[in-house]
Amino acid sequence: MRRCRKPGALLAACGLWLQGCYLSLPVQQGAAPTGVRMELVLNDRGRAALSDRLGTAVEKVEGNVLGQDDSSYTMAVFHVRQVNGNSSSWTGERVTVSKTDVVGYQVRRLDAKRTALLAGGLTVAVAAAFFGHSLFGSATTPADQGGGEPEPARVRR
Length: 157
Known about the structure:
six-stranded antiparallel sheet; 4 helices; SH3 type barrels
């Protein structure tokens, strides 16, 4: 039995492309909106203070802000990015981060225009891949495929 790997590869590529549909807004300071997916940008002090909980050289902590008070944010963490570019996925573990340990936060927003363009382009690409053979026809004729009566030889005079 032959396994087709194209659908899996296509789904993986779509997942990567969809990351381009999000915008990270500029770093903001002050009270963060609760229940919104965002990234906390850590300062040097924060990297050192949170290294035992988040790992070494963490630059950004992405997740949902569950709550905050005057001195800290409480987040459900889903992604951690290090200064060197490495990253790790989390499953919503609750982490408290002191406000003195962050430079600020970045809210991630879905870009509707880019998402619509991507969805349209992917729809056209998938339709062309599946229906392209029947849309553009085959290079063979029915006679080439062994069907029908052969044409009589023409004699030139």
